[in-house]
């Protein structure tokens, strides 16, 4: 009997010990984290870019979209230079980590790790080891960047329609370094709020509360829009706004589904709860609009969707789905009340021109979600994801202490953002005007960028009122003739009319031919 020796494994994708797949790397975890990062990125690019470009007046479409675009790009560069390790590196202070680059192969191909997240008991014994996901550091750098970027993009919503774009370009890197990294390390990276037991599953405080408070603070220092813009700021394209809102909603699957750093049970619960809360909040907001104003508002529905997504974020993977529905009801009613009733009765709130009401949709909804999470988080789901043993909501036996921690965390994030945002803008204001001049505000995009979102005359030709009263145009035999301003308007209008007439004629001919065939 002859024994056949097994042939050595052939090179291929299923070989053991592939050079690019070390023993600690899980391909499924890596794939999901990259997909989740892309989902969150789509929320900003193009989601919020589209929303901002469409929800504002036509004359501000380009500027508003560009503020989001610039914030996204600038955040990435600052993030890999020093920001990531300030938020998720080795502990420097109770609220800050040591700065350092995330640019070299030696750092990026190693196993991802949160160095400061080990939790020790009161007697000094290790209760929870530090978090070490099963993928490379590069995936974590990318994922956490998307969260940092969308925070600044959301903040921009408070400042649309008047902030000097040069001041915004200076503001974004400074705010990222001195505000965002502090909140991220304190609550996620192993800082004092993380160790204390404040629950912020996926950014109700780090992202939404901070962007809402910082945006409101910045709106105060920058100053208001023109009176005419504040009184009438109609969206230039509601359909595009809905499309951008849809990208934001679906992208939240990566936002909350990627927070456990693995495609596990917690991630699936979080994604389901996210959608349930968003839908419930949208319906609640819409019903309130109908009850009090007699008709549903599409803009209101998008705002209700947003508050539902924000409210569930602090506890998406930690609560029952019926709790997510309850949170959605609160998310669709409490921010509605603060925006529609309380805001209009407060002299101070009316004075501060928060363009897209980011304070209500993100700060109010973020605190609301944090408080409700402190009440509704279940011990079973907390055991799967939370770093502190025996964490749970008040309704499941934690006592009032957990609610106090949630409020304490919200207070720290609020105060820090108020102080740091004010300091940054006051410093920038010494060198660059924070607000555009009234003359520029009258014009809008063309004054800020020399570009406009929509062509007004023919094939992109715009009528320039600054040109002389008459212009010379070529005549027969090379002779010139002068056209008055009125003639130029008439000629340009005639071209548009000819195009419209030609289209109308084609439509009539098509209808006639169909009738003849019948």
UniProtKB/TrEMBL annotation:
It is a multi-pass membrane protein. The keyword Transmembrane helix applies. It comes from the Eukaryota. Gene3D superfamilies: Ammonium transporter AmtB like domains (1.10.3430.10). Belongs to the ammonia transporter channel (TC 1.A.11.2) family. It comes from Oryza meridionalis. This is Ammonium transporter. The chain crosses the membrane at residues 31-55, 67-88, 138-161, 173-193, 205-223, 235-255, 261-285, 297-316, 322-343, 355-377, 410-432. It is found in: Cell membrane; Membrane. GO terms for molecular function: ammonium channel activity. Keywords: Ammonia transport, Membrane, Transmembrane, Transmembrane helix, Transport. Involved in ammonium transport. Its main location: membrane. PANTHER family: AMMONIUM TRANSPORTER 2, AMMONIUM TRANSPORTER MEP2. One of its GO terms (cellular component) is plasma membrane. Residues 31-454 form the Ammonium transporter AmtB-like domain.
């Amino acid at each position: 009997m002859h024994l056949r020796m097994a042939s050595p494994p052939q090179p291929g994708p299923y070989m053991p010990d592939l050079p690019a797949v070390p023993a600690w790397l899980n391909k499924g975890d890596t794939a999901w984290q990259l997909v989740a990062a892309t989902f969150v990125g789509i929320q900003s690019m193009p989601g919020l870019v589209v929303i901002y470009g469409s929800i504002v007046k036509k004359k501000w479409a380009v500027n508003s979209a560009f503020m989001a675009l610039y914030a996204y790009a600038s955040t990435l560069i600052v993030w890999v230079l020093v920001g990531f390790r300030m938020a998720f590196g080795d502990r420097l202070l109770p609220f800050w980590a040591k700065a350092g680059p995330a640019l070299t192969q030696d750092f990026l191909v190693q196993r991802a790790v949160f160095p400061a997240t080990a939790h020790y008991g009161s007697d000094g014994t290790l209760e929870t080891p530090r978090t070490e996901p099963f993928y490379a550091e590069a995936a974590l750098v990318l994922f956490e960047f998307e969260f940092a970027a969308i925070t600044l993009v959301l903040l921009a919503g408070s400042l649309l329609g008047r902030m000097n774009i040069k001041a915004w370009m200076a503001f974004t890197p400074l705010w990222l370094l001195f505000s965002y990294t502090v909140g991220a390390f304190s609550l996620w990276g192993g800082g004092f709020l993380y160790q204390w037991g404040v629950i912020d599953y996926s950014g109700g405080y780090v992202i939404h509360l901070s962007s809402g408070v910082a945006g409101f603070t910045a709106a105060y220092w920058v100053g208001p829009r023109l009176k005419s813009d504040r009184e009438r700021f109609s969206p230039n394209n509601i359909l595009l706004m809905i499309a951008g809102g849809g990208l934001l909603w679906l992208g939240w699957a990566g936002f909350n589904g990627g927070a456990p750093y693995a495609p596990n049970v917690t991630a699936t619960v979080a994604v389901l709860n996210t959608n349930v809360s968003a839908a419930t909040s949208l319906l609640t907001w819409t019903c309130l609009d109908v009850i009090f104003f007699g008709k549903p508002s599409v803009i209101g529905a998008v705002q209700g969707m947003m508050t539902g997504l924000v409210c569930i974020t602090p506890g998406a993977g930690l609560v029952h789905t019926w709790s997510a529905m309850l949170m959605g009801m609160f998310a669709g009613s409490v921010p509605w009340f603060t925006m529609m009733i309380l805001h209009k009765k407060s002299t101070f709130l009316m004075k501060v021109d928060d363009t897209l009401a980011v304070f209500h949709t993100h700060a109010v909804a973020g605190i609301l979600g944090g408080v409700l999470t402190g009440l509704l988080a279940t011990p079973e789901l907390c055991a799967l994801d939370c770093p502190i043993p025996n964490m749970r909501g008040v309704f499941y036996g934690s006592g009032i202490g957990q609610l106090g921690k949630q409020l304490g965390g919200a207070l720290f994030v609020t105060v820090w953002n108020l102080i740091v945002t004010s300091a940054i803008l006051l410093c920038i204001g010494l060198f660059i005007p924070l607000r555009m001049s009234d003359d520029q505000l009258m014009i809008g995009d063309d004054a800020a960028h020399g570009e406009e979102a929509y062509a007004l005359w023919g094939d992109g030709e715009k009528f320039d009122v600054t040109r002389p009263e008459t212009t010379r145009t070529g005549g027969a035999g090379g002779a010139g003739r002068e056209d008055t301003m009125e003639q130029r308007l008439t000629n340009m209008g005639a071209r548009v009319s000819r195009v419209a007439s030609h289209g109308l004629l084609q439509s009539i001919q098509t209808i006639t031919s169909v009738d003849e065939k019948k």
